[in-house]
Design goal:
The protein is an alpha/beta fold and 537 residues long. The chain has 2 domains: 289 residues, FAD/NAD(P)-binding domain (3-Layer(bba) Sandwich), CATH 3.50.50; 117 residues, FAD/NAD(P)-binding domain, CATH 3.50.50. The protein is 31% helix and 16% strand. It contains 16 helices and 20 strands. Helix 5 links the parallel strand 8 and strand 9. The structure holds flavin-adenine dinucleotide (FAD).
């Protein structure tokens, strides 16, 4: 049996246990250790980095700019790290996570290759059980398990009979598969597919893309970072960060969202605004009008603009039509690409529409759709994740009186501030449902949550308290608030993973909260009022 970190026996007790060693777990460990807590992190993977450890597929990169998609808690760290491109690649982000682990000597308190399978609360103690057959306990349990960390593998008839290798973008092998001379099938056309398809198309003999729903994607306009731009940002990095934290999504103060609604612009001005953002590249496109995600007419105009771009890029009109999304733009996560639509002009790429009835069957030699057979040597699932709740619900979590999280969340996730759950004392979720999480630059949201949790624990201790738990009525009011905010927007209108629609049987609830600045204000206010809405003991 492996020891819990250096020299600590199985069954050891800590002040805090953290599950997950992605960006959330790493910073939680650093911050709690600095505050004098004994901490252990348990991580299923063989290394740090979370998302960036698992998602090694070709083309994986961030779509929040590198200079923002990194920690800000340590000025020396953000000054010394050099990003090479506007949008960093997965290997570079993983190198950064390893650098952070090294720089702050984090590994000695992380136990790798250890999956937490159960966690239960009794006698003011959380006890976790691992797949290594042992246990550890702590006063506080922090779930840093990630919002996008449970790969979604749709059940397709006959999949187990497929003769070739099967991959999932979210669990990509460390040894890069060799697709040369191969006929590769990609299932899915979300963000990971849109990043990987252009590269797989260059490597494979033939690429067949199976598309259920066309998604909007805008060009990244990725490029090496200009040293002068970097120097400018770094000359006052904290002020740049502060400006970004005031943006609704906690990033992008260099190209803020317009405050002008579409209806106040002429047709020519609207087109110019969309074109300027298309040329600028990245998620900023959604900020072309102040009401792009609030008003259907404004949204329709942006959506039609992108469809026009698709028609301009894709030569075969029928393929262009199939690639043209019809839903509200932005209510499924907007994708950011390099040459995605142009890839469908390649002679070795074909698009198969599976919107009507999915894939009939996987056979040993390929896939069958509507009776047509497609021969394949390798299959890639780019089918995303059971987002936000999937990873937590896979663990048998039991709070007071043995109540399971699965019961508590039977009708969808319910939290107070996305941080705590009534009935689960001293239990915290970093970027949990009900917090801005996936609608933001997640590293900013992670840091805000870690600091809030650490401050909360310090405050408890200095007041001689040992436990904190969300009050049910505060939680109910929060859930209502999250829904009310979503209902003022166009977000709930699509069958997105934000509402759990990609997972059969999952309760339809809009899980994240829109609006980082008011959320931070609320969290600060709750703390300033002595943790209003919580029971402390
Ligand atoms: C392809 C991709 C691109 C992305 N790009 C961006 C971007 O540009 N900008 C952005 O803001 N966000 C992006 N994200 C979101 C990304 O997940 C977050 O930015 C961030 O990396 C999350 O960090 P985390 O530590 O919260 O979770 P994760 O990185 O998911 O880490 C969670 C860790 O918990 C571990 N774990 C889970 N369950 C258990 C268990 N039971 N026992 C032990 N360990 C467990 C996992 O192995 C994992 O290592 C992207 C996500 C993906 C998948």
């Amino acid at each position: 049996m492996m020891p819990y970190g250096q020299g600590s026996p199985s069954g050891a007790r800590f002040d805090m246990l953290v599950v997950g060693a992605g960006f959330a777990g790493l910073y939680m460990l650093h911050r709690a250790r600095r505050d004098g807590l004994s901490v252990r992190v348990l991580e299923a993977a063989g290394g740090v980095g979370g998302t960036w450890y698992w998602n090694r597929y070709p083309g994986a990169r961030c779509d929040v700019e590198s200079l923002e998609y990194c920690y800000q808690f340590d000025e020396a760290l953000q000054q010394e790290w050099q990003w090479s491109e506007r949008f960093a690649t997965q290997p570079e982000i993983l190198r950064y996570a390893n650098h952070v682990a090294e720089r702050f000597a984090l590994r000695r308190d992380i136990r790798f290759d250890t999956r937490v399978v159960a966690a239960s609360y009794a006698d003011a103690t959380w006890t976790v059980r691992t797949d290594q057959g042992d246990e550890a306990s702590a006063q506080f349990l922090v779930m840093a398990t990630g919002c996008l960390s449970s790969a979604n593998r749709p059940a397709i008839k006959g999949l187990e009979t497929f003769a070739g290798p099967v991959y999932h973008t979210g669990e990509w092998p460390h040894a890069e598969p060799d697709f040369s001379g191969r006929r590769v099938g990609v299932i899915g056309t979300g963000s990971s597919a849109i990043q990987s398809i252009p590269i797989i198309a260059q490597r494979a003999k033939q690429l067949t893309v199976f598309q259920r729903t066309a998604n909007y994607t805008v060009p990244a306009k990725n490029a090496p970072l200009d040293p002068e731009h970097v120097a400018r940002i770094k000359s006052d990095y904290p002020a740049f960060r502060a400006r970004n934290s005031l943006q609704i999504n906690a990033f992008g103060s260099n190209m803020p969202r317009s405050s002008v609604p579409a209806r106040e612009l002429t047709a020519a001005e609207r087109r110019a605004a969309l074109e300027a953002r298309w040329q600028y590249g990245g998620l900023f496109f959604l900020g072309a009008f102040g009401d792009l995600l609030l008003d259907k007419a404004a949204n329709d105009e942006a959506a039609e603009f992108v469809r026009g771009k698709i028609r301009g890029i894709v030569r075969d009109p029928e393929v262009a039509r199939l690639l043209s999304p019809q839903q509200v733009i932005g209510c499924k996560r907007l994708c950011v690409d390099t040459d995605y639509y142009a890839t469908f002009n390649r002679p070795n790429v074909r698009l198969v529409d599976i919107s009507a009835s999915g894939i009939d069957e996987i056979t040993p030699r390929g896939a069958r759709v509507n009776g047509d057979a497609f021969e394949l040597d390798a299959l890639v699932f780019a089918t995303g994740f059971d987002a936000m709740t999937g990873t937590l619900l896979k663990i048998d979590i039991r709070g007071r009186e043995g109540r399971t999280l699965r019961e508590a969340w039977r009708d969808g996730p319910r939290t107070y501030l996305g941080l705590c759950i009534a009935g689960f004392p001293n239990f915290f979720t970093i970027t949990g449902p009900g917090s801005p999480s996936v609608l933001t630059n997640m590293i900013v949201s992670i840091e805000q949550h870690v600091d809030w949790i650490a401050d909360c624990i310090s405050s408890l201790r200095s007041n001689g308290c040992t436990s904190i738990e969300a009050r049910p009525e505060a939680q109910e009011a929060w859930v209502e608030h999250v829904n009310a905010v979503a209902d003022r927007t166009l977000y709930p209108q699509c069958n997105s993973w934000y509402v759990g629609a990609n997972i059969p049987g999952k309760t339809r609830v809009f899980m994240p909260l829109l609006g980082f600045p008011p959320y931070v204000e609320k969290c600060d206010e709750v703390a300033a009022r002595g943790y209003e809405g919580f029971e402390t003991d």
